[in-house]
Each structure stands twice: as structure tokens, then as C-alpha cells.
Design a protein that fits this description.
alpha+beta, about 200 residues, 8-stranded mixed β-sheet
């Protein structure tokens, strides 16, 4: 894995009122070495991000409701072989994630998006909005309960998003059956808007 993320050495702090609590969100860009922090989160997460080339990353920390929520957004470039190897490792996280989740369902999800991924439009915080960096897939890892002393009471989520307009050939992707696959909605939204325009034209005729 290419651990060559570029960080600005600065951080952004966002203040927001929420009901019923006041939340403070701290955000920073990731150095490559920062991915090693995942070994302190949940076994297997650090290995999950070792496939493909890392092109960008963001870490957010929100000590909300006295429990704390941290999220890492990590962006990758690679081909279908890199992606398939990552999916194999992702599938191995089913049991560990389920042990730290309130859901009885398999907590693994792959979301497919149309077009080419771009960090600036991938919804990963303040820093990312001005980073026009192409990527192929994104891994979002969240843990809730970072301020709780009992680590067994912390909850974890890990999701994968793939943009099919990049280097990963969709027909060569091999998704383990334990992973739920869903659409990001871009194609459905495009079709819905097109059909709405057709209806408006027919009404005006």
C-alpha cells in the first residue's frame, strides 16, 4: 500500500448545536502513518486498508453525548485485483463488527456509484471539499464510544463505496456473499428526472 498521504499539518474545528447536546467536531487530514491507529480500533481494520494505493484521507472526531464518535474516510486507487483482495478482507470483518453492533444483520455493505470518484464530491468533511483527487473506492470506518473506558462497549461500522467509472472493471469484481450490494442511486435518479421531463412534455402537447 502506498502510505503517501499529504497532510497540511492543520486541523479544522466545527461547532454545531444539536438536540439535546452541543457537539464539537475536530477534523484533520491523514498522514499515511495515521492509518496505523486502526490497529487500536478493531482487529482487521488496519489490514483492510492495505490493498490498493491510498490517495487521500480524513479523520473526524466528535465527542457527542459524552461517548465520542470518530470516523476515518480513506480513498483508494487500484484495479479489480486490488479491490477483490480488499473485499476478501472486508468479508472477514463480519463477525467482529457484528459483536460490536446492535444489529443482528450482517453489517457489511458495498455501494455502487456511477461515474468516476472525486474526493471533492465524496462527502468527507471540510478539507475534502477542495481536493479534486480522482479515486476508485472509499472506505468509511466509524467507531462510537471512544470516551467509554470499557472497549467492549464500543460500536464499529465499516462501509465500502465503489465508483464504477474508474480503474475497477465491474464485471471482474468478485463480491463475497456475506456483503450486501446496493446502488448509490445516481442512475435511478437520472432515470426518474428523465421520465419526469417526458411527462411534462406530454402534458404540454
Amino acid at each position: 500500500m502506498k502510505k503517501d498521504l499529504i497532510a497540511l499539518g492543520t486541523a479544522v474545528i466545527t461547532l454545531a448545536w444539536s438536540v439535546p447536546a452541543f457537539s464539537l467536531t475536530m477534523e484533520r487530514e491523514l498522514h499515511g502513518s495515521d492509518l496505523g491507529e486502526l490497529s487500536d480500533w478493531l482487529p482487521g481494520l488496519e489490514k483492510l486498508v492495505s490493498h490498493g494505493g491510498v490517495v487521500y484521507g480524513v479523520h473526524t472526531d466528535t465527542p457527542t453525548f459524552y461517548r465520542g464518535i470518530e470516523t476515518m474516510y480513506i480513498f483508494f486507487r487500484g484495479d479489480h485485483e486490488d479491490f477483490n483482495e480488499m473485499l476478501k478482507q472486508y468479508a472477514k470483518l463480519a463477525d467482529p463488527l457484528k459483536q460490536h453492533s446492535q444489529s443482528k444483520d450482517t453489517p457489511l455493505a458495498l455501494t455502487l456509484h456511477a461515474g468516476r470518484g472525486n474526493v471533492a464530491s465524496a462527502g468527507a468533511g471540510t478539507f475534502a471539499r477542495n481536493k479534486h483527487i480522482p479515486f476508485d473506492w472509499k472506505i468509511r470506518i466509524t467507531r462510537e464510544g471512544t470516551l467509554v473506558s470499557d472497549r467492549q462497549k464500543r460500536r464499529y461500522w465499516a462501509t465500502v463505496d465503489l465508483w464504477v467509472g474508474g480503474e475497477v472493471e465491474l464485471d471482474k469484481v468478485e463480491v463475497p456473499l456475506s456483503i450486501d450490494v446496493k446502488s448509490g442511486g445516481e442512475i435511478e435518479n437520472f432515470i426518474a428526472k428523465h421520465e419526469e421531463k417526458r411527462k411534462q412534455v406530454k402534458k404540454s402537447e
